[in-house]
Amino acid sequence: MALILAIDDSATDLSMIQYILTNHEVILARNGEEGLQELDIHPKVDLILLDLHMPVMDGFTFLDICHDRNLDTPIIILTNSEEIDKEIRGLEKGAVDFIRKPLNFKALQMRIDVQLRLKQSTELIKEHNRQLEELIEKRTQTIRRTNEITINALVRLLEVRNIETSHHARRTKVMMELLCRQLQKQGLAGYQLSDKEINELVDTAPLHDIGKVGIPDNILLKPGRLDPDEITIMREHVNKGIEALDYSIESEETKISFIETARELIASHHEWYDGSGYPANIQGQAIPLAGRLMAVIDVYDALTSKRVYKEKIEHNEAIEVMKQESPRHFDPIVFAAFLAVVPQIRKRLEES
């Protein structure tokens, strides 16, 4: 049994509708205004039968209000045989079908049955989609948690060798998230980031120097400047990082998104905007956005953190150093976004 709202100023037509639809529960209203009041009382109406010519509020106004309310209840309009133009207008305003007066018992029953079946099918599809979305969300959370565990395990390799600390991983994640959200808010062409892309960048940011686990201690932990040969060896950490995340694929479709993000970030975060970086000497927009983001974050963290080969410097001094080398080193859009969120970065890092 369905709940049907019949809106018509003709008492005769309303009585006939009630008589014809004895197998359903029928609510009656004499104009559009009463119809809206009944909808407020009975929000789960399954179907509406709507006359167009009524006092107080006609059917067209009722349709407009239903549209504004995003009402998805199917509406069948009732028209006279000569009102073809009004039938079209009603359908354009959201009605799903029309029935001409005088009402025909069989036609009314069949039209209503069709719409009720369609509504039921639509609701089943919506429920199925809702369940699928829940399942996808659960699996997405599981995958992200698995990725996080994998990344943490790799980052611990750096900690074991005293190359970095867990604080470094935390700092890079905080900075990456705030920087990405700033770019997302700006919405500039070429810098748009989806939530999924931001999550992957944030999760994989701590892996940018994972290749350092393959660099000998006498170079990696040297407390002074590296000589040219040592610099060449040190720079190999980029390729070693890419190789560490290598995996075989049968086609483009089998690529693992977060691994690809990590590999891209690792491969390009030492590239300079003017092309003087390494390992590929690419420049400008040819550098993947992941690398341009990480370049700014990595330099700021390196300047403001104590390393085996240097003492840390204060925030204001670090920003001045970065501003001086910005034209050569950093994407100007990314660097401007970074400067905009630096106060938030400092606050988050101090709180955590």
Automatic annotation (TrEMBL):
The keyword Protease does not apply. Residues 143-352 form the HD-GYP domain. Signal peptide: none annotated. InterPro entries: CheY-like_superfamily, Cyclic_di-GMP/3'3'-cGAMP_PDE, HD/PDEase_dom, HD_GYP_dom, Sig_transdc_resp-reg_receiver. Residues 3-116 form the Response regulatory domain. One of its GO terms (biological process) is phosphorelay signal transduction system. The modification 4-aspartylphosphate is found at D51. Residues 118-145 form a coiled coil. The keyword Hydrolase applies. Keywords: Coiled coil, Hydrolase, Phosphoprotein. This is Response regulator receiver modulated metal dependent phosphohydrolase. It comes from Sphaerochaeta globosa (strain ATCC BAA-1886 / DSM 22777 / Buddy). The lineage of its organism: Bacteria, Pseudomonadati, Spirochaetota, Spirochaetia, Spirochaetales.
